[in-house]
Amino acid sequence: MMQVKQAMILAAGRGERMRPITDSRPKPLVEVAGRSLIDRQMDRVEAYGITDVVVNTSYLGAMLQAHLRTRPTPHIRFSEEATPLETGGGVLKALPLLGQDPFFVMNSDVIICDAVQQTALQRLAAHWNDASMDALLLLHPRQKAIGYDGAGDFFLESDGLTLCRRGQRPEADYVFTGTQLLHPRLFKDAPEGAFSMNVLYDRSRNEAGVLSRIKGVVHTGDWLHVGEPAAIAQAEAFLALP
Fold first, then answer.
1. Is 225 part of a structural domain of the chain?
2. Are 175 and 150 in contact (CB under 8 A)?
3. For residues 114 and 128, is the Cβ–Cβ distance under 8 A?
4. N or C: which end of the chain has fewer CB within 10 A?
């Protein structure tokens, strides 16, 4: 299994759906069961064995940086954005801090509960194939997602790895969890400024919606999306279950 050495946590967004809580604090500092969302993600990265993490900041970035500097580990470097660059632009700006090898990228508004046999990050690393993919996305079955009421994002082809967009279909089987393993080559000739990672994913998309260089693997634990105030209580109730 490949050992990934670098990770980035996306934390620059405004968190509009989490207002009014985010009027006075950045969304990554929202607490669920007494622990902030970004600390939960940082704990996960550190448990995997990564000692160097990049965090992008923008809205109330000074507050977020001050909080993270209270952690003795891991070593955290900040990529500051004068205005939010969205997911793709944010990673592109931070790319010089992330090296030349595949690295994890994680959203900071989700909670991942790992399976006993294998953590989510271990699962991504175990399924990485450098010859056939530029990105490997962690997926979760839509109907099992906690705090998520969307239509889903992807289908999986028969090989269990190849992704197909939902397109015009009303629902898809899997939702993207916001955790992924990326190779820097994905960002070759990327646009400047703010843009979504979807722009890069879709460069390998055919007319049927199949993505040739963007793969997916299904998470075997639980996944909680904490996107709005009501989702906090829902997540806390789930985490309190025996």
1. yes
2. yes
3. no
4. C
Instruction: Give pLDDT, residue 1.
Output: 75
Distance CA 144, CA 225 (A): 11
Question: What domain range includes position 185?
Answer: 7-239
pLDDT in the model for residue 141: 96
Extract the residue ranges of the chain whose pLDDT is less than 70: none
Considering its fold, how many domains does the chain have in total?
Answer: 1
**The pLDDT value given to residue 89:** 97
Beta-strand ranges (E) seen in 108-195 are: 110-113, 135-141, 154-156, 162-165, 174-182
Concatenate the DSSP letters of all residues of 82-121 into one string.
SS--HHHHHHHHHGGGT-SS-EEEEESSEEEEPPSS--HH
> What are the beta bridge partners of residue 120?
none
Does a structural domain hold residue 64? Answer: yes
Contact in structure between 235 and 111 (CB atoms under 8 Å): yes
User: How far is the C-alpha of 138 from the C-alpha of 216, rounded, in Å?
Assistant: 6
Residue 1: inside a domain, yes or no?
A: no
In this prediction, residue 160 carries a pLDDT of: 87
Strand pairing class (35-36; 31-32)? antiparallel
Confidence (pTM): 0.94
Q: How many CA atoms lie within 13 A of 54 on its CB side?
A: 21
Q: Give the domain CATH number at 176.
A: 3.90.550.10
Do 173 and 152 form a contact (C-beta atoms < 8 A)? yes
